[in-house]
Amino acid sequence: MRRVHVIVSGEVQGVGYRYTLRLEAAEAGVAGWVRNRRDGTVEAELEGTDEQVDSVLAWMAEGPPGSRVTDARVTDAAPTGSRGFEVRTTV
C-alpha cells in the first residue's frame, strides 16, 4: 500500500474539484480524503496500490473542466489502512 499527501494549487476551488476527485478516487479504488484550504489550495491524502494512486494523481494534475492546476506537491505518508473516500470541511 502507498499513501501520499497532496497540495494542489491554481484555480481549484469553486470548480467541483473535491467532488469530482471523490468520484475519481472511488472509481480507482483509492481511499482517503480531500478538503479546501483557506489559502485557496486543495489538500488531499490518497491510499491504494501504486497504480491506483498514480492514476488519481494524474487526474489531480489536470483537474475537472473549469479548473487550472498550476502545481501539485506530493509527499509520501504512512499508510493507515483507511477505507472509503471523504470530502472534509475547509481548514
From TrEMBL:
Hydrolase is among the record's keywords: yes
Catalyses which reaction(s): an acyl phosphate + H2O = a carboxylate + phosphate + H(+)
Entry's EC annotation: 3.6.1.7
PROSITE patterns for the chain: ACYLPHOSPHATASE_2, ACYLPHOSPHATASE_3
InterPro entries xref list: Acylphosphatase, Acylphosphatase-like_dom, Acylphosphatase-like_dom_sf, Acylphosphatase_CS
Active site: R18, N36
Hydrolase recorded as keyword: yes
GO molecular function, one term: acylphosphatase activity
Segments forming domain Acylphosphatase-like: 3-89
Main enzyme class: hydrolase
Alphabetical keyword list: Hydrolase
Family: Belongs to the acylphosphatase family.
Name this polypeptide is given: acylphosphatase
Organism from which the protein derives: Microbacterium protaetiae
